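Entry type: protein chain
Record version: 2
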Amino acid sequence: MQRWLVTGAGGMLGTDLLAVLDAQRPDVDVTALTRAELDVTDASAVAEAVDGHQVVLNAAAWTDVDAAETAEEAATAVNGTGVAHLARACADRGTVLIHVSTDYVFAGDGHEPYPEDAPTAPINAYGRSKLVGERAIAELLPHHGYVVRTAWLYGAHGPNFVATMLRLAGQREHLDVVDDQRGQPTWSYALAERLAALARAALTETAPAGVYHGTASGQTTWCGLAQEVFAQRGLDPRRVRPTTSDRFPRPAARPAYSVLGHRRWALAGLPAMPDWRSMLSTALHDPAMASTS
């Protein structure tokens, strides 16, 4: 029986990873470690945790984008140095590492989907911290390291935009939502399924190591997403009104364009992920997501 390790197992994505592995891989012995149970900044603890596992699915991360602006060193310790510890431990043991990264490694000033090999140029501390982790994997684990960039994640097990829209729909008559940022809303459970599939392909050596983009197909704005959430719940989407980002200033700059290309999935024998609208429909019919409204 194979042994797989899930780090960051208590978060939104980590919880979905455990559910996916439980449903799809009864022949896999899963070790689930939450942030409290494994500090990825502790190299010796990481080495001990990785020992004996064939796959590591790393969902551990500093995810507070705004807080990273004033705590970049701490964010980089988790998103950069911690990932390096995982990569080094996996390299020493011949273990496959599937690591989740972000669209924030790009500048967000493009107009066409970013390919996997596009130049990186993060515009905030969070993006810089995640890029340190990506580079560590490329250097330390070139043959068994997989970086999966995702964006605009929503799901049943953590705070996120879709859950917020579902809650506010019952509290406010109108919502003003920014319409000048574009991206690919992605259900965390669908991403978890894709990460598990990539891990299986990695173990059979049918997926080349390197960077993949784990986002839904298509694109929309935050306003477009909110309107679609309303429409799919049978509410009037006109209750969502477009506005601009300068109405909602944040400590960290946000990329205006976060649309990612998906060319490399074909090299792994996997299709691109579904369109964001159909993915959202599936998510909203999931009992766990339904309970967030």
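Comment: The first strand starts at residue 2 and ends at 7.
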